[in-house]
């Protein structure tokens, strides 16, 4: 919309003839180049927008999966708690004890199996212990070890004087005689 002049007004600005704006003075080639450049920029911007949208959708789906997993875990825990409450306190305790006992038995079996594998050869023979015996003092080894448990009492060692243990020797003081 343009204003109309009432009396003696003169137009001093015409937007379609702005010398600063080169778009009105450009040739057809320049116009085509400029339009092609703008179209390429829009296309690149649309591609970036599509990639950003795709990444956002991917993050949303990951977040939804994490929420669904957490919700499923909560539901499972609540169902287990309700099942234990329905059984009663004593039966629930017995059920928990049985599970703990089963876990202990399973762990013991695994340890026994590992020990069996460790102490058998490739052919399936059991490995025998070789005991190195010290007969230098002329004593014969005891065929049966005593059933008394070993003593772990602390044994105090006699202390050596400090300067001697460090290898320091005191010099004799000269006498004044």
Automatic annotation (TrEMBL):
Which residue windows are coiled coil?
A: none
Q: Where is the composition biased (Basic and acidic residues)?
A: 1-23, 31-51
Bias class Basic residues marks the residues at 168-177
Pfam families per UniProt:
Saf4_Yju2 (PF04502)
Spans annotated as Disordered: 1-51, 132-177
The protein, known as: Unnamed protein product
Q: Which organism is it from?
A: Aspergillus oryzae var. brunneus
């Amino acid at each position: 919309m343009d204003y109309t002049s009432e009396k003696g007004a003169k137009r001093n600005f015409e937007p379609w003839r702005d010398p600063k704006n080169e778009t009105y003075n450009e040739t057809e080639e320049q116009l085509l180049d400029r339009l092609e450049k703008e179209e390429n920029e829009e296309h690149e911007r649309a591609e970036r927008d599509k990639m950003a949208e795709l990444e956002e959708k991917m993050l949303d789906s990951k977040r939804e999966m994490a929420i669904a997993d957490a919700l499923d875990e909560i539901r499972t825990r609540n169902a287990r708690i309700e099942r234990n409450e329905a059984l009663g306190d004593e039966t629930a305790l017995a059920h928990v004890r049985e599970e703990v006992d089963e876990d202990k038995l399973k762990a013991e079996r695994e340890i026994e199996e590992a020990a069996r594998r460790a102490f058998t050869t490739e052919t399936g023979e059991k490995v025998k212990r070789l005991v190195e015996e010290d007969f230098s003092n002329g004593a014969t080894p005891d065929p049966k070890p005593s059933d008394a448990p070993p003593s772990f009492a602390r044994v105090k060692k006699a202390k050596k004087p400090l300067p001697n243990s460090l290898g320091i020797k005191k010099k004799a003081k000269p006498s004044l005689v």
